[in-house]
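Quick check before the chapter quiz. The format below is the same one you will see on the exam, so make sure you can read both the input and the output lines.
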Amino acid sequence: MTRRNEGAQTAAPARNFTLTTAERIAAVVAGPPAWMRRLRRIEDLRREIGAALNEHGGQPTPAAEKLYAQLRQLVDAHNAYYPIEANLPIDPRTGRMMDHGEPWQRMASPSLDELAAQGR
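Here is the expected output.
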């Protein structure tokens, strides 16, 4: 086993693991990770609810309220599982989880008024 020269210049990013070809193929076959599919569904629901609210003058319909309940459940699930599923690193100095170089923040659950304003 060879050790990498710590002073060497390289364009390769620092990493603490490598994937074998079999693991890469398994990842392609499995498709996008759960957090990514959930985030896409959250974005879709936000648009659907905003459009439904705007069709009815900003008044929530039973269908929009049902979609809103689904949205809140997805946001709660995203906040609970995203850090684990995305394998977010922890800053050793602060003990906070980091997401793309910034401290990770929980996703806020939008209000119906915010969704109506976005759908305009």
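If your answer matched, good. The helical segments are 21-30, 34-55, 62-85, 112-118.
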